[in-house]
Amino acid sequence: MGRGVTGLILKAMRADDYVFTVLGAEAVSEHYHRVRFDGGEFLQRNPWFPTMWVRLWIPKSGTATTDEDAGDLAQRGYTIIEPEGSEFTIEFAIHDGPAPRWALDAAPGDRIAATMMGADLTIPEHPAPSEYILVGDAASIPAINSILGTAAVPCRVFLEYQHDGERDLPVHADHVTWIARENRGAALVSAVLAAGLPSDAFLFVVAETRATREITRTAKRDLGLAKDRIKSQAYWLDRG
Fold first, then answer.
1. CA 41 to CA 50: how far, in whole Å?
2. Which pLDDT does position 12 carry in this prediction?
């Protein structure tokens, strides 16, 4: 019950705990939802940077909010966007899971526990990247948008979609290459690798586990991208 083994590990690593209060929520589309929070001292103690994310402790029932360790909780990571003072927004891709169910029911005044454990985004400076290549799907649009909003070099964006409506989600790029999810992510992998990855680019990959690993592995092994020019994190696992 409570936060389980993950919570114990984070506590041992001296992760910081917070409580966020819901200020409002809105549907962006059938498959996307935004929740605005007041984080108290969270942003004061953790200055915002692109791709900044936090762990939310979600009741597995998805139907209640909590700032206590009551009930059976699951932790899910979400990107912090639109920081202003103590407030910020988190966007939820809607699927069958406790976090989306919680987000759909969230109302002003609801509270939820959160944990912050050292996260950063380091981009090489010598030499600076010639371009950013950003790869993901609906779940990683907030992180990708946070990079697009601060990038000083050209960006290429590749996004996988499962529902046609996802292609209407706001992406802050002049052009996005949308790839329908096929063969458990193989279509995304093929599209990204076929487009070419210059050795002086910065590659940011945050997609399904298999696609993320394959793109990252090929970029290092076959295309010559140095480790410090790749940032990758699997956002979810296709168990089908």
1. 19
2. 45
Place of tokens 């002086």: 200
CATH number (domain holding residue 79): 2.40.30.10
DSSP-derived secondary structure letter, 50 = T
Give pLDDT tens digits for 204-234. 999 999 999 999 999 999 898 999 999 999 9
What is the rounded distance in angstroms from the CA atom of residue 218 to the CA atom of residue 100? 33
Instruction: Give the three-state DSSP class for 209.
Output: helix
DSSP run (H or E) holding 177: strand 176-180
> What CATH number did the domain enclosing 228 receive?
3.40.50.80
Predicted TM-score (pTM) of this structure: 0.88
Q: Can you say whether residue 26 is alpha, beta or left, with left for phi > 0 and alpha for psi between -120 and 50 degrees?
A: beta
Identify whether residues 25 and 93 lie together within a single domain: yes
Asked if residue 67 belongs to a domain, the reply is yes
Measuring CA to CA, which residue among 177, 127, 173 is closest to residue 147? Answer: 173
Q: Long-range contacts made by residues 100-107, C-beta under 8 angstroms, separation at least 24?
A: 100/33, 100/62, 101/61, 101/62, 101/63, 102/58, 102/59, 102/62, 102/63, 102/65, 103/25, 103/33, 103/35, 104/33, 105/62, 105/63, 106/22, 106/25, 106/35, 106/65, 107/22, 107/25
Query: Please, which residues bridge with residue 211 across strands?
Result: none
- Tell me how far apart the 2 most distant CA atoms of the chain are, in Å: 51
Looking at the DSSP assignment, which residues form a beta bridge with residue 180? Answer: 161
